Amino acid sequence: MAQPKNFVYYVKRREIDDSINSCLQKRLHVTESFVNRLGLEKELEGHGGCVNCLEWNSEGRVLASASDDFRVILWDPFHYKQIHTIETGHHGNIFSVKFLPKSNDSIVITGAGDWQIHVHDVSLRETTQICSCPGGRVKRLATTPQLPYLFWSAAEDGGIRQFDMRVPHTCSSDVSNILVYLRTHLGGYAEAKCLAINPCRPEILAVGANDPYVRLYDRRMIKLTGFKESNSSTFSRPLPIPHPVLGDVHDELEVEDNLLPGCVQYYVAGHLPIKQDMQKKYRSLAATYVTFGSNGVDLLVNLGGEQIYLFDTSKKCKPKSFDVPKSALPKEFGGTSNGYSNGFNGFHSGSNGYMAPQPPPSSKKQELPEVIENMKLTANMYFENGVFSHAISLYNEAICRYPNCAVLYGNRAAAYMKRNWAGDMYAALRDCHVALQLDPNHVKAFFRLARCLHELEWKDQAKLCLEVFKVRFPSHASSHACRALDKDINAPPTPPPNPPPNFEAQFDCDDVEGSNKSERSLKSYEEWSWRDMACDYEKRFYGHCNTTTDIKEANFFGSNGQYIMAGSDDGSIYFWDRSSTNNVRILRGDNSIVNCLQPHPSCCLLATSGIDPVVRLWSPQPEDGSENDREVKDRDAAALLNQRRMKADPFDVVLMNMGYRPVASLAEDSSEDSHLRTYNCRAS
To answer: What is the pTM of this model?
Structure first.
């Protein structure tokens, strides 16, 4: 009988097989026990402002931090001491710091809000190069070990630039270092916010901008280009920020369109490209961080104003189809006469970017394993009592263990619809599709699908879905619920409310006409085509809040990315189990906001930073029974408060930023006042 490959197996094999050490290290990198015991190990003091970025060197022996004080500090994280302090020469907030690979950590690169990139030689103790090519704040830098002499930058002028340290560089109109210029296709409002290089395929570059889309470019298909000179005899940059009154501003310089067909793939959560209502549309959506998993397939995105999304980049497919799965269609609508079909042409595996299990072989009531049945009954009880987050967590765990049960998906869809947090209605729609694939006779899932389409304001699809429902289940066509939904779907649209006077002037991205300015000013057919072919997400992680800063990170934790983590506007660090998407831990990581989370490359050690001028190190604490005073016990309450904050009246946010106390649109009780704090830190 084969011995199970557990911890004991690997320890024994290590004595005769040296390669087992790496397997053992991966298994013990981050474990459930470690995450449950994670606590504050040390606060590293030395900065005089908000710490906006962190970076480990390749071996994890040095930690770099950069701050609003324009300095970079290199730390020995195991002895809690400063190794070196770099006076960068920047005169704007430093947003990104990177070690140049294979430079023995002697070359450090910084990008800042002064529109400049500086290259520092630590051994020489001097700044060796200053690049002023970017025409806006430099928000992110990227490097890769496979190409140790190259690095990339993302700036708010819409440019993704590539730099080669082997070639002398001068900032002039003759330089061709622009890899992607977003404004060529998006218009003058496009800003590049973040980027990442695929660790397994360095030719693949992920880019996040000030819209909900994440773009994957194949660098092999893109030729570096530069700015074309304008009629003016002097070299000048495009304006980095649109004029709030004049509206669209045409750049003085243009860039050649160097994006060939097939060089880019877009990704977006399926519910986000739709028109938002008056309150939601003023909430700017922007990717604040993108990163690849160690396998080079997983792509994690922290979307400002929304949630965290995990995409599977191996699925090259169109994101969504609002059609009812063909297996559930009656014959009159192209389905089979009895509602069943051997082929599934709706939401099936490989066509929408998320899992669709195989249907059961018969229509008999499915018997669940005892443990799954008990979890379902407990979740149902929470649902009946209105504790929807608890119910969803249990349904998540049950589906993770037993993914072929239509009832679990249908019940979770109902809980999503009742809770109705940001993205919940679309998650419910996805669950209804999977439930109908597993059981074409699932009446409630069919009806909920029509309700979801209506709530998402996809009117035509909702109307058609309800008509199909009436034909498919004629005994339910005259029910009170069906008649009520029919009335809602066919009701005339309600005109949007008028915004407060001069309200639109407070925002860079949206206007009162109902369309996002970046979408209204799209300049190319190719951009519409890329968006139309965008792929949907695989999993969603929620509970945190990301509305105040645009540098908030999300990251994988563990050698296999088995946990997801992110900072939040409530000053906490959130941890999710990747498989179930359940929130498993919340730790208070800052007095105001946690922006940065960087895991150690080989051991269970985490570095975080935010508004406080310190770097915090987190590691598993001793099993001595002591209580962690930084742990947030009521995770559901924290998540609920964050969701309310995300839905806050944008006018209140404007007042808050002006230093006034907002009207109590959210503060139904005094416990929620904490989300209205102001922060004494330079805006990021």
So the answer is: 0.85
